[in-house]
Amino acid sequence: MKELIKLEHITKNFGNLRVLDDFSLTVHENEFITLLGPSGCGKTTILRILGGFETADEGKIFFEEKDITDLPANKRNLNTVFQKYALFPHMNVKANIAFGLKINGKSQKYIDDKVDYALNLVNLKGFENRSIDKLSGGQQQRIAMARAIVNEPKVLLLDEPLGALDLKLRQEMQYELIRLKKELGITFIYVTHDQEEALTMSDKVIVINDGYIQQMGTPEEIYNEPENAFVADFIGDSNIIGGTMIKDRLVKINGHEFPCIDEGFGNNKLVDVVIRPEDVIVRERGAGKINGTVLTRVFIGVHYEMLIKSEENEYEWLVQCYEKYDIGEKVSLDVIPSNIQIMNKPTSSDEEAIDLDI
Amino acid sequence: MTSKKALATPFMIWIVAGTIIPIGAIAYYGLTDRNDRFTLENVLAIGNSVHLQALWLSVLLALISTVICFLIAYPLAIIMKNSNFGKRGFMIFLFILPMWMNFLLRTMAWQVLLEKNGVINGMLEAIGLPGQEIINTLSAIVLGMVYDFLPFMILPIYNVISKIDDSIIEAAYDLGASTSEVITQIYLPLSVPGIVSGVNMVFIPSLTTFVISNMLGGGKINLIGNIIEQEFTVSSNWNLGSGLSLVMMLFIVVSMIFLERFDKTGEDSFI
Amino acid sequence: MKKSLKFIYIGIVALFLYLPIIALVVLSFNESKSMAVFSGFSLKWYEEMFSNRMIMQAVINTFTIAITASITATIIGTLAAVGIDGMKSKQQNLVLGFNNIPLLNADIVTGIALLLTFLMFGISLNWGTVYLAHVTFCIPYVILSVRPRVNKSTNTLYEAALDLGASRTYAFVKVVLPELRPGILAGFLLAFTMSVDDFVITHFTRGAGINTISTLIYSQVKVGIRPSLFALSTIIFVMVLIILLLVNFLSKRGKEKVIY
Amino acid sequence: MKKKIVLVISLAIVMLVLASCGNGGGEKVYIYSYGDYFDPDLIGMFEEETGITVVLDTYDTCEEMYPVIKNNSASYDVLCPSDYMIERLIDEDLLSEINFDNVPNIKNIGDKYMEMSKEFDPDNKYSVPHTFGTAGILYNTEMVGDTVIDSWEDLWNEDFSGEIVMQDSIRDTFMVAEKILGYSLNTVDEDELKEATELLKEQKPLVYKYANDSTRDILASESAAMGVIWNGEYLYALELNDKLEFVVPKEGSQLFVDSWVITKTSENKENAEAWINFMCREDIAKQNFEYLTYSCPNVAAQALLDEDVLNNEKVFLTDETIDNCEVLKDLGPEGNELYSKYWKEFKAE
Asked: What is the structure's pLDDT at D136?
């Protein structure tokens, strides 16, 4: 795939606060890329620098190998779908969608056709003359999309576009976005703090925290092989516990040795171990390695979610399973080797702070 | 709910005593002659060439000042909106503070500044420019009006503009609009309520002032406000003065209708 | 627009607004009475100001009228803002229309109308007539700033308080009023400012010997104003400046506390 | 029930306010005079001597004062209007006779001036002269150069365009034009008035400003070369700028007498008389003259003044000058309306 956008060594400060620090990223053509991270992590700032609403303090931006670092927003061939849609309240639906086309001096015929096409695409045919404040949130969202795509941008920047919608609508719109992406065949750069959204839609997810990229990869990679405690904790629920890598393919957790599939950490090295709650196997007492007592139990639809307190070191395991165990019941836990994910202990003080939080 | 409504009772009494009755009083004086007989003469006196000329001059000067105020205030409001936080509060402060100096004194200060041998001419001459003779002319009055009423244009416009979501402006840039297109197609239509109330708050006082024309016009220029004021003081023909006031109220009614037309936000933006 | 260009623009407008004020402040320290020449630094106008009874009386009048009128207007206006909320929308529009009249009406017309009314009812002009006139034009400002705060949430809060067993008065005083406080405060300050700065309406409704700072200045403008009035305005201006800076400073401190 | 309570409270507030409008206790005298027309220190002295509190208000022109008195919109005790206005107030029964038993110092006022007063107060029953004088041209000797200033017509000299200051008061402004045309100051002939109006309109482009007492400051700061002003301002103007000179034009001028009078509605008449008596005391009149520099009709006070001031013909006019001057008379309602009409027409130009 061809390289489309390149961010090189971007640094951005707001006052004394460093939001982005030496941030580099390459986006390829026709990718659906998601910047995922907690609020304040710098993901929106990246999008705004791309859109031309902020200027980076240092670093360069290339678009199709041209330096666009100093190009103002209105000259960039990319369009943004804003968090709260930012529709023009004094214009009707059609005028909103036609805005960019009119500015670019397109013919009336072309504009009419384009607006028709865009409204069709977002399933809002016949809404041309509605006024903006008469639309529901989901409809406004679609108009915002339509307004951006009629300009045929090479890249669409989406800043938490589904944040203001309710759950049901949000799920619907996720499918809608995937469909749109396929039909348009352009690059989407999507910003969200919702990991489910990120995993559902993207080709590539970039997890960001404190202005740094924590991990980059396909949704599966991110979920199954988190590279550090932050990613593991941020993406889905996890049990993150300290352990010792005795040798390749053998790790000691809670005083018990578990075979695993990771290599290259060295011998007798302290590591972090990530085990997803659904990967913990609950067995009758004695049938597993770690002994524990069921503390709480909630039924959440498909399965039960339980906290099980380990007897050896009081660690509380988050566990999901289909069988029902009573509170106070004594059980044993086990994990199969491929579900054990080993990570290096964080080295920077920043990440230690995160560790403490966990 | 009825008990809640009753809270407005003192206000209703005040409306009757402080607004309705006084307007009735003006109407009564305006529609009668010295002997309390009904007449339309005082109202129709606006057709008198002297009055008409003063009215025409007042409308003209008020229009000019309003336009100048708008042209100064609008870019300022946009700049104020886009300045960063700390500065924003400071700037509102900067433009409100002068209102705390008595406006008569501020106006009079212009007299001092513009006097033929005044401060401004002194400065101009010091840098080798010819002195300007604008004191006691129409320009001096316009300057006084712009000076006195500019904050009343800045504040309502700023109020409306500051409420425009930044992302709407960014969206317009994002869609390729240039700065001038953003101003004409986004800022202007969205700030109409503020503009209307700003225009009202500059136009009406400019139209009816007698103080500024008195202080800066050198007694050479009579605006309709001067005529009415003089009917009440110098000439003591209160009936004529009231009749002309009734005519002035027409303008106010028109401006009220204008305000009514535009969003209620216009009302809030007085503050 | 370039940043420096913005700066220059703001600077020019600010200069335009402040030039006369600077001139007045400078002249208040002028040795000579003449407004054309600065003949030397002197504090004599400040001395004269404090020893001149007319000026002191005008200061007292200005502030007693402003304080009493704006307090009265704040009470009536706040009650009205809540009361108006309980009206049907047609009634609301009518009442608000009347409320707008003193705001939009030319000062000169308002002043004359009040003057004629006082005389029609045989009320001789005095301190009280000025007070009544000021209350009249202050109320709309209070309503204007309080009304936006009277909305659904205050209604819900009021009902919630009733639901929890509060009496109507208690609910109003303890629940609704605190909710309206910023609006009330803004309304009061606005009314106060308008009252202090008013000239035209006072000019028409003032009685014998009732001068406010504005009318005193006007009566002196033609005779040749004495710099002691510049001194007075300078002092008021500086006081306002200090108060505003203090308020600003304190509220900033307050905000920081909230954050940390 | 609630409604009634609110109603009662709001009425109570209104009543309270109305009640508080009454004046506080203590003896008072309400004075309404031209602005800056006597030494402000005198107020304190008077209060100390008599225990009467002075409440002072000022006006700029008599015309401004008249409607206030006429409508009794504010009640004053003592006024200090000019001659023609006193006549009008007497005619309209707005003044009360002064009890001269309470004003023994009336003896200090020269007979000459009491005689002059008879022009507008035929029996000397209502008024006590405070100042008198005439209008003339104050000019800057340097700015006018070689031009000799001795006629009202010099105010129409186009060489001084934009450097001429005129009075901004109906009768005083018309006076200048009427004198040039050779008409009486008190003409009510519409044709003559029309002619005067035309003359004033013609002059308007040359005029820097229509001003009242500030004429002195404008000339002192050399923003204008000449202006119409009262002779009483001359000494003070000279202090500010020694290039100034004053002349009473040869066509003759207006003679004014400004006198203390007491209103019909006065509630503090004896205090008012005490004030007038105080102002007539020789030492007070002298102090006031030194402050005001308007010619004072108080003969006893004149005796206390320096010779050269007394002999200054610009301050204490010669009989010859006085004879050449005319006193303004009240013109009656029609006459006043006629002046108003032409005044407005001239202003609208």
From this structure: 94
pLDDT at A169: 84
Per residue in B92-147, pLDDT (tens digit) is: 788 888 888 888 888 988 988 888 877 788 788 888 888 788 888 999 999 999 99
- Domain positions in chain B are 48-268
pLDDT at B141: 95
B49 contact partners, CB below 8 Å, separation of at least 6: D348
Q: Are residues A71 and A142 in the same domain?
A: yes
What CATH code is carried by the domain that includes residue C207?
A: 1.10.3720.10
Whether C259 shows a pLDDT value over 70: the answer reads no
Shortest CB distance from B117 goes to which of D70, D209, D223?
D223
Which architecture, in CATH terms, is B48-268? Answer: Orthogonal Bundle (1.10)
Q: Which of A140-144, B40-44, B117-121, D152-156 bottoms out in mean pLDDT, i.e. has the lowest? A: B117-121
> Does A232 map to a domain?
no
D10 touches chain B (CB under 8 A): yes
Report residue B252's pLDDT band, with 50, 70 and 90 as the boundaries: confident
Residue of A89, A90, A103 lying closest to B176 (CB–CB): A103
pLDDT tens-digit series, residues D202-239:
999 999 999 877 888 888 888 899 999 999 989 888 88
pLDDT in tens, C149-208: 887 677 788 888 888 888 888 888 888 888 888 889 989 988 998 899 899 999 999 887
Neighbours of chain A (3+ CB pairs under 8 A): B
Total domains in chain A come to 3
Q: Which residue of B has its CA nearest to C244?
A: B93
**Under 8 Å between Cβ of D249 and D137:** yes
What tokens does B261 get?
């037309």
**Which stretches within chain D are classed as H helix?**
2-20, 41-50, 62-70, 83-91, 111-117, 141-144, 170-181, 190-203, 215-220, 234-240, 269-280, 282-292, 299-302, 307-310, 319-323, 332-348
- DSSP letters spanning A242-267: EEEEEETTEEEETTEEEE-S---S-S
Residue D166 belongs to domain with CATH number: 3.40.190.10
- Asked whether residue A188 falls in the same domain as residue A251, the answer is no
Range of the domain at A340: 238-276+335-358
- Dist. CA A278–CA B119, nearest whole Å: 84
Identify the contact set of chain B against chain D, taking CB-CB distances under 8 A: 2-3, 6-7, 9-10, 13, 17, 49-50, 53-54, 115-118, 133, 135-136, 218-222, 226-227, 230, 232-238
Is D64 near chain B, with CB under 8 Å?
yes
Q: Are residues D244 and D164 in the same domain?
A: yes
Is the domain of A50 the same as that of A193? Answer: yes
In whole angstroms, what is the distance from residue C86 CA to residue C89 CA?
9
- Look at the pTM and tell me if it is higher than 0.90: no
Distance CA B171, CA A85 (A): 9
In a domain, C143, yes or no: yes
Instruction: Give residue C96's domain range.
Output: 54-224
Do A and B touch, 3+ Cβ pairs within 8 Å? The answer is yes
Count of the separate structural domains present in chain D: 2
